[in-house]
Amino acid sequence: MTQHQRLLIIDFGSQVTQLIARRLRELNVYCEIHPYQNVTDAFLADFAPQAIIFSGGPDSVTREGSPRPPQSAYTLGVPILGICYGQQVMMQDLGGRVEAGQSHTAEFGRAYVTPAGHLPLLEGWFDEGREQVWMSHGDHVSKIAPGFEVYGTSPGAPFAITADVSRNFYAVQFHPEVHHTPRGAKLYENFVRLAGFTGDWTMAGYRQQAIEQIRAQVGDAHVICGLSGGVDSSVTAILLHEAIGEQLTCVFVDHGLLRLGEAEQVVSMFRDNYNIKLIAADESDLFLGALEGVSDPEVKRKTIGKLFIDVFQKYANEIENAEFLAQGTLYPDVIESVSFSGGPSVTIKSHHNVGGLPEKMGLKLVEPLRELFKDEVRALGRELGLPQSFIGRHPFPGPGLAIRCPGEITREKLEILRKADTVYIDQIRKHGLYDDIWQAFVAILPVRTVGVMGDGRTYDYACALRAVTSVDGMTADYYPFSHDFLGETATRIINEVKGINRVTYDITSKPPGTIEWE
Ligand code: XMP
Fold it and tell me: Which residues take part in binding ATP (predicted)?
């Protein structure tokens, strides 16, 4: 089996740990983030990293019982890079001293580091005499550990960059992974080069390895895969098909809450281009029937989620020898579920997925994307030959139009919404804006307003246009359309869509809003 070189990031709870992983993946280095609690001596020996990074974190190493890596990390003989809290941990563990925050030594925000010696880690740095970095620390190192030397200083951090070259241990007080350390990526590049990484994490390699792993996991059993038409489930299905061919059956459930022509597009994309066994189930009457009279967002979500599982199970039961369920779980979902704080504490919305199904049906999970970020899934999709028009599609939520129709859902409203959404997306494409926007859609509002068209009075629905930019859907900002675009779009919707006589534009960011209306 192909095996890539692996780097381990031990997470001490920094908000930006994921960015370290991003920087490394951009260098074609494979890495995994694990919360410090999980990284035991045995874990470390088993993981066999070629290098380790200690992340930043909110705690103070001066506090008794504060997070630590296993001490065997220091004797594995592999390079270590400590960042912020990670630097302080390293200093403390190896015989230096850290002092708790005092206002004159704390540093938050932009700072400048100047060189204090030559270090291969810093190659390509300090060409202009100093480097801008992002600091965020209350505590500071007051004595460096034996064996370490200072290679960079800032006004608030005399030990901003230290290293023990003989052991390949590096420790920096600032955060090289963030945007505000403009040339921070160079430090990661130098670190992985010093650690002997060859950049073997490519999509072609990943595809091959994933296929081998799927085959080894599944054997000759059958796998079922729920298709939503989104990028993640499509890439999962195609990868599985490449790995196990006839042993895969996909199930596409049309819950009657899809956009105009969507079910046909998804089914024909799979039927015409791939020889994948596909069950396309029209269950719209069931879902819309159950949603009649329901206007509470959580009740809608739960109703849809439960029915989805029932329906999926009904079709899955017809598949002989089904032992596995494939899911397009991505890396951010995996991190969230084992996060430092123990996962999200507040349920804002009950997200729709096929969770609960594997236990209920006694199925085992196949999750071939669980090591990937969204843009890596898109790259894998390209590698697998999925058309760009499909790969670049905006995300679409599992509960579909139900959560874009606040209040009671009726077939009439869904019909109006589909038409308005089609015009809006057409406008966005015509103006060449589709790829600049993370997600755009129309929500039909539970309110009718008075208008005048021709010489007559109208009393029709109002709708809201939504368009946001985002990197991961966790935070978002509204898209700054020009007034000309908004005016033209509103006119088209009102003229072309019977049932809408007023158009508004939603300019709420997330937080405090969410992307969807429900
Ligand atoms: P919110 O509305 O929470 O949405 O800001 C963030 C992103 O998640 C999508 N979304 C969902 N996706 N099942 C999904 O598969 C869901 O239940 C769900 N709810 C929201 C939303 O479209 C946006 O991209």
Answer: 228-234
One digit per residue, the tens of pLDDT, for the chain of length 518 reads 457 899 999 999 987 888 898 899 889 999 988 999 999 999 999 999 999 999 999 899 999 999 999 999 999 999 999 999 999 999 999 999 998 876 566 777 889 999 999 999 999 999 999 999 998 878 889 999 999 999 999 988 899 999 999 999 999 999 999 878 999 999 999 999 999 999 998 898 889 989 999 999 999 999 999 998 889 999 999 999 999 999 999 999 999 999 999 999 999 989 888 889 999 999 999 999 999 999 999 999 999 989 988 898 898 888 888 999 998 888 766 655 544 444 333 556 666 555 566 777 788 999 999 878 888 899 999 999 998 888 999 999 989 999 999 999 999 999 999 999 999 999 999 999 999 999 999 999 999 999 999 889 999 999 999 999 987 777 789 999 999 999 999 999 999 999 999 999 999 998 889 999 99
- Burial class of 331 by CB neighbour count within 10 A (0 to 12, 13 to 18, 19+): buried
Q: Which atom of ligand 1 is nearest to the CA of 350?
A: 17
Hey, which of 515, 517, 518 would you mutate to test ligand 1's pocket, going by the most ligand atoms within 8 Å of its Cβ? 515
CATH class of segment(s) 410-505: alpha beta
Q: Specify the fold of 6-194.
A: Rossmann fold (3.40.50)
Residue with tokens 């220091």, as numbered in its chain:
74
Q: Dihedral sign, CA of 6, 12, 17, 18?
A: positive
- One fold for 6-194 and 203-391: yes
Q: Is 384 helix (H, G, I), strand (E, B) or coil?
A: coil
What one-character-per-residue DSSP string does 197-226 give? ------HHHHHHHHHHHHHHHHTT-EEEEE
Residues marked as catalytic? 84, 175, 177
44 CB-near residues (< 8 Å, 6+ apart): 8, 70, 72, 73, 76
pTM value is: 0.74
CATH superfamily, with its number, for domain 203-391? HUPs (3.40.50.620)
For the chain, the structural domain boundaries read 6-194, 203-391, 410-505
Token representation of residue 275:
């020889």
Nearest to 254 by CA among 299, 288, 224, 293: 288
Which amino acid would we find at residue 513?
A: G
